[in-house]
């Protein structure tokens, strides 16, 4: 039996491959990331990235394990938009943990069962560190309506770029001026005193600190490393006697009174990206007030109504948020834009390709005889003339298309001062349909008067300040309509290779804030959750060892179930390897942030902190006091983590490891060797 185990250990190639692949993303972990250059073999073009998804896309993942890893990371990215770096690293350290268990002759069924049980227990334990948003964000008016943002008034952010020539903007401005006292707006996007009325409390004013670096945020594991702990606790605080969930509602938790502070707590040091996200929320709120004619109506942040427009090679100061849809088009359209701007336009929306060959699957074409005329088929020539005639009859000025557009049609429309925008997302079309009255059609033959929307405005972006901004022979244009919730984040960087990284950082921050609002709760951040997981696992290990000591008289092997006895025997080993994964996770974060000069130094600090937490008698209360003291010492700010994306990253990482483990074993020894009973199979969630 032992020889069979050792034979399996040497042949678990899948786990070894998984561990090796995840090493490529070690520098991406934590708030301070070290980017990697990715150079294309054919084009020799390079990008600078710290995105796990972009990194895996560039690797030659020909193995089945590589494909599984990529699909797992992609599923996390598509579902939550964040947590991929955590998933990648934990999948690596836990695959190493599984290999270590195999080297100690631990049965595979026990590894699967105990690891799943350990993670499940940790997930239950950290529920105590979840804070409802009505405790994080103090709203004296109505906390129960959160995440509905109820307020009487909100100042425009200095990041918002609103063309003053658009009629309804001036109209809303006049209405506000007549009903409320004026308040001066900030003049710079880098203002250190960005003050505004709270989303949640119209009387609160929040000032943001200038020049905060990524490492200056309140962080439990990094900030407490450089100071001597002066905390003490009462022996009367006992986890078994007190409801731990109630401890988070008292004064131990520093509360913020504005969306600004919540956003800062979720930014993890990336304040420039989160500031853009915050401006996008405010812009959506402002436009919702215009659409509903009432700012008292509950409002929810919709991340699907955000798009990005990347302008490479431009100064960072140009980054901003625009209400509406911004995109790049050929510079040859500049003259048409100048003729159409400041005028209410009629628009049609095509939810598909705008080509002659784009037909319903059941469409039966004409005879297969074609006559070529100036390199264009006769059938396409007829189609072009027919479509152009329809557009002119409908008096349409703008066409927005989800798919591809016929180049010949674009040329014909250009001659008739008709603007066509291609590759527009479904969410953009949907939002324009809601505010303009346009009806989306799939095929050009469906166009009629009932499909046409109105009151759309188009303009060159920053035309008054910088004439025309050109990027690779393209110009940026802004398309918007009254009350549209769509917001575009304009991302700029003088370093072209950094554009992908800048875009990834923006979306990560956007999804963090979005999921915090959806979950209506956040975790205490700064390593608090992971420290509690580590402490809990160490306590489980100690309990298991104590139980083994009591059963050492020989009663263990006399139990009726071999599976139960094996679990009791190997449980401490498996739990320790699982805990080692968390330990490496925290140590690497500390090393990446520069808090410790080496991973070994970070590991020693984590070990000492775990020891103090365990010896405290009540780990939860000890961590809460540590967290609160660090917050008060460092800029009086809190750090938060999102709940669901973090938990799902853990689950996906372990599920991937256990899937590879069992697949390897089935290939080596057959499916029966790793057969699980029905109860264990129900608890194991695969990909």
Rg measurement, Å? 29 Å
What is the count of distinct domains?
2
Poorly predicted tracts of residues: 1-8, 139-219, 222-257, 673-687
Main sheet strand line-up: 6-13-12-7-10-11
Structural class: alpha+beta
Share in β-strands: 5-15%
The shape is: elongated
Count helical runs. 23
Q: In this structure, how is the largest beta sheet organized?
A: 6 strands, mixed
Distance between the termini: 31 Å
What is the helical fraction, as a range of percent? Answer: 40-55%
Give the strand tally.
16
Average predicted local confidence, pLDDT: 76
Give an account of the 3D structure.
With 687 residues, the protein is an alpha+beta fold. It has two domains: 496 residues, no CATH class; 159 residues, GroEL (3-Layer(bba) Sandwich). 46% of the residues lie in helices and 11% in strands. The protein is built from 23 helices and 16 strands. Strands 6-13-12-7-10-11 form a six-stranded mixed sheet. The protein has a three-stranded antiparallel sheet with strand order 3-15-16. A hairpin with a 6-residue loop joins strand 1 and strand 2. Helix 11 packs across helix 17. The longest helix has 31 residues.
């Amino acid at each position: 039996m032992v020889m069979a185990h050792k034979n399996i250990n040497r042949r678990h190639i899948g786990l070894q491959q998984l561990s090796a692949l995840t090493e490529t993303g070690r520098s991406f972990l934590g708030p301070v990331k070290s980017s990697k250059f990715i150079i294309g073999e054919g084009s020799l073009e390079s990008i600078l990235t710290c995105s796990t998804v972009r990194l895996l896309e560039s690797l030659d993942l020909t193995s089945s394990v590589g494909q599984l890893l990529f699909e797992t990371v992609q599923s996390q990215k598509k579902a939550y938009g964040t947590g991929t770096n955590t998933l990648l690293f934990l999948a690596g350290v836990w695959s190493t943990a599984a290999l270590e268990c195999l080297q100690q002759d631990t049965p595979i069924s026990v590894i699967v069962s105990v690891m799943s049980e350990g993670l499940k227990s940790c997930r239950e334990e950290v529920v105590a560190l979840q804070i409802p948003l009505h405790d994080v964000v103090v709203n004296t008016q109505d906390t129960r309506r959160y995440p509905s943002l109820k307020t009487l008034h909100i100042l425009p952010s200095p990041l918002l770029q609103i063309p003053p020539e658009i009629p309804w903007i001036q109209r809303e401005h006049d209405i506000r001026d007549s009903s409320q006292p004026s308040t001066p707006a900030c003049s710079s996007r880098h203002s250190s005193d960005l003050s505004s009325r709270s989303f949640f409390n119209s009387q609160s004013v929040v000032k943001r600190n200038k020049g905060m670096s990524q490492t200056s945020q309140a962080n439990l594991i990094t900030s407490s490393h450089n100071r001597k702990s002066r905390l003490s606790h009462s022996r009367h605080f006992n986890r078994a006697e007190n409801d731990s969930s109630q401890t988070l509602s008292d004064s131990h938790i520093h509360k913020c009174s504005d969306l600004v502070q919540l956003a800062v707590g979720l930014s993890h040091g990336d304040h420039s990206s989160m500031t853009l996200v915050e401006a996008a929320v405010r812009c959506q709120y402002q436009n919702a007030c215009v659409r509903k004619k009432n700012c008292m109506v509950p409002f929810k942040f919709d991340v699907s109504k955000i798009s990005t427009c990347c302008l490479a090679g431009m100064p960072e100061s140009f980054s901003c948020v625009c209400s509406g849809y911004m995109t790049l088009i050929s510079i040859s359209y500049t003259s048409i834009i100048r003729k159409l701007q400041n005028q209410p336009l009629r628009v049609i929306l095509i939810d598909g390709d705008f080509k002659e060959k784009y037909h319903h699957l059941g469409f039966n074409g004409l005879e297969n005889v074609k006559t070529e005329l100036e390199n264009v088929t006769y059938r396409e020539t007829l189609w072009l003339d027919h479509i152009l005639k329809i557009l002119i009859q409908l008096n349409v000025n703008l066409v927005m298309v989800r798919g591809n557009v016929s180049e010949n049609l674009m040329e014909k429309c250009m001659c008739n001062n008709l603007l066509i925008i291609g590759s527009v997302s479904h969410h953009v079309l949907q939002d324009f349909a809601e505010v303009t009255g346009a009806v989306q059609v799939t095929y050009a033959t469906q166009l009629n008067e009932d499909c046409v929307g109105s009151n759309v405005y188009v303009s060159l972006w920053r035309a008054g300040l910088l004439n025309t901004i050109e990027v690779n022979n393209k110009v940026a244009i802004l398309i918007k309509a009254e009350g549209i919730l769509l917001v575009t984040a304009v991302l700029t960087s003088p370093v072209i290779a950094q554009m992908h990284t800048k875009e990834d950082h923006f979306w990560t921050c956007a999804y963090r804030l979005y999921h915090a609002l959806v979950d209506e709760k956040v975790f205490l951040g700064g390593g608090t959750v992971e420290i509690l997981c580590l402490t809990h696992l160490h306590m489980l290990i100690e309990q298991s060892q104590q139980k083994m000591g009591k059963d050492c008289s020989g009663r263990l092997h006399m139990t009726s179930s071999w599976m139960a006895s094996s679990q009791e025997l190997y449980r401490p080993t498996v739990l320790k390897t699982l805990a080692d994964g968390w330990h490496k996770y925290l140590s690497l974060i500390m090393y990446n942030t520069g808090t410790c000069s080496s991973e070994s130094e970070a590991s020693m600090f984590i070990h000492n902190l775990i020891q103090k937490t365990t010896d405290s008698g009540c780990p939860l209360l000890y961590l809460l006091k540590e967290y609160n003291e660090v917050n008060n010492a460092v800029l009086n700010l809190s750090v938060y983590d999102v709940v669901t994306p973090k938990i799902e990253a853990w689950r996906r990482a372990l599920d991937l490891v256990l899937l590879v483990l069992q697949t390897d074993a089935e290939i080596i020894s057959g499916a029966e060797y790793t057969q699980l009973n029905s109860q264990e199979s129900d608890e194991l969630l695969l990909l």
